[in-house]
Here is the input.
Amino acid sequence: MCGAALAAGRLEDGSRVLFRSSGGTMAERAVTRRAWCSPLPDAVDDALAAAVQNPGVSAWNALEWRAKLRPGESVLVLDATGVAGQLAVQLARHLGAGRVVAAGRNPRVLAGLPALGADAVVRLDQPDDALRGALREAAGGADYDVVLDYLWGHPTEVLISTLGSADMELRFSRTRLVQIGVMAAPVLSLSAEVLRSSGLEIVGSGTGNAPPAEVLARQLGRVLDLLADGGLRLEVSRVPLTRVRDVWDLDQRGRRTVLVP
Here is the structure.
């Protein structure tokens, strides 16, 4: 079961592993290194393992390593209707978030997010003023503690505009925004006033600030354990490798496409 560089498969000795390959994995056989292989639990299906590896570890890393989520804190997931966002909602709940808000555009996926752990859902495809009000209401009267942002661009600008205060009262709050993806746009306009009048802190989560290899291995192990125990859910579309051209640019609509050799 494979993607561009990550896959589930068997080594020559027959053991099942998740692995990566610098030469890509979209083939019946791929070259890898032992150090790039992780044991795959018997209870985890190959396709689910291949689908969860990248977005699952990315979400766990953003919550635990970059945001340093503490039990009871509130979490907003921007683009919670994508596969990574759906996993982020579930992992935020698993890691002890007190309130989880899921924001996205796909109405079908949004409707199912409360069953995955979301306390509230917000439609992003509404006028800016209405979206500001919906985000504030979903937060429960306070700023979010943690924001996982898979969008950037205008939706993030709208969120940021809900932070801060024009009065001169001294207050202390922190909103740790973790920038992960750019599904909406690669840039945004950021007001200096917001940075001075709110507790907004922005960090990125990616290859340039990854934790040590042993931490990533632990995170992957925890994600796989949750998948094996039924603690994580995701939709997977299994597609024969021969049909890769047909699905390469297809809108996944909340599902993860996995190529089957």
